[in-house]
Structure of Transcriptional repressor PaaX-like N-terminal domain-containing protein:
Amino acid sequence: MSQAWQAIPPARALILSLLSSGGTGPTALAALTRMGGLFGVDAATIRVAVGRLARDGLLEQVERGQYALGARGAAMGARVRGWRQAEARMKGWDGGWLLILVDHLGRADRVRLRARERALRLSGFAQSDAGFWARPDNLAAPLPQLIAEAVDLGLDAAAIAFASAAPLPDEEAKLRTLWSADNLATTYRFWVDAMDTSAARVARMPPDEAARETLLLGQAVIRAINLDPLLPDALVDAGLRRWMIDGMIAYDDIGRRAWAAFGTVEVRSDQG
C-alpha cells in the first residue's frame, strides 16, 4: 500500500470520482477542467474524457456545457457511496457457507475468466483448493439478490450457487484460511494511520493541496472498504474494520470542508 494512494488516477476515473463525491447534480465542464488542473490533468484531456464518458453512458449532458452522472455512472456512484452502510449488509453468522461452482464454465475465454474471477472477489469470495469459490454465509441479502449483483459485476449467469452449505470439518478448516486475518488487520490499521496523519497535515495546507489530498486518500480508503470481504467476527477483527469505517466518516467531513474552502477560493478568483 505504502503511498500508492497519492498516484493521480486516469482522467476518466478522476472525473467520475469528482462527480460521485459531489452528488449527481449537473457540473459545468469549465468546473471539471479547473478541478482536473488541481490534479495536473490539462483541460484538453478532461474534455476528451468527458466526451468518451458521455458516449459510454456514464455521463449525460443535461444542457450545454453541463454534465451529470448518467444512468450507468449513477449506479456505479451509488455502489461506491454505499461504503457508509457496508457493515449493514451483514447478518449474524451461523457457520454456513456460500459456495459457487464455475469449473463447468471452462477457462478458455481469458477475458470472460478475468471478469468472472474479478466479480467473485469483489463479492467477497475466495477460491478453494477444491476449485469452488466460497465465503461465509453472513450477508443479509438473499442468495438470488447476491448472485444478481455478482452477475452485474461480471459473473456468468450459468454459475451454480449454494447457500447455507456445511462442508465437512476438514474442508471447513481449509475454508477458514482462505483469508488472512493478520493481513486484513494490517490493512485496517494502515488506513486509519494514513487518515490520522493526513488530517493533521491537511489542517496546515492551502485549500488546493488540502482538496487534492483528501480526495485521493478518501477514494483509496473507500475503495478498501468496498473491496473488503465483510467477514464475520469469528474470522477477522471486526472492531478494527469498524474503526477504519468510522475513521473514514470523520475524514470525509474533513474532505468536504477542504473542498468547500477550495470552491470559495475558486469563486473569488473567478470574480476577481
Summary: The first strand starts at residue 27 and ends at 28.
